[in-house]
Design brief:
Layout: E1 4-10, E2 13-19, H1 25-32, E3 51-54, E4 57-60, E5 73-75, H2 77-80, H3 87-94, H4 104-117, H5 123-130, H6 141-151
Parallel strand pairs: 1-5
Antiparallel strand pairs: 1-2, 3-4, 3-5
Helix pairs in contact: 3-6, 4-5
The structure holds FE2/S2 (inorganic) cluster (2 copies).
Amino acid sequence: MKNISIQLKLNGVRRTLEVEPSDVLLDVLRDKLGVKSPKVGCDRGDCGSCTVFMNGKTVRSCLVLAVEADGADVVTLEGISKNGPTRLQKEFVKRNSFQCGFCAPGVILSAEEALKKHPRASDEEIKEHIAGNLCRCTGYKPILDAIKTVASGKASK
Ligand code: FES
Ligand code: FES
């Protein structure tokens, strides 16, 4: 198949690369652009481990063709942490919210999106936002507690 040249902004840096028409964004990010935080989980849109921001909204990068990201602004966990951990990330660390950490990049981006939309998100809004991010280890409580703390304004700076 003939390769296609695409251009995207990845974590603030313009990148140009050749992709195959069938390449998915997740594989291109990991294998061609060296960004490893989006994880290959189910590879079919069910687990949320491949979550990234595309043009300001979270998407499952395993369901996005790389050619669809041509011209897009893509931000991964590496991008949101560029200037150090966010308040939410600090709270996750403080509470040991994750165990194996496989789900963490996706959960963090979904939670950051929830707080961007609703800085004082209710419990329901938080749950709704991270409902698509599966975690096999934690039972979700330490994850939800951290997000709730930030949403309540009680997180340390
Ligand atoms: S790997 Fe994309 S949703 Fe599971
Ligand atoms: S901490 Fe292991 S899957 Fe969430």
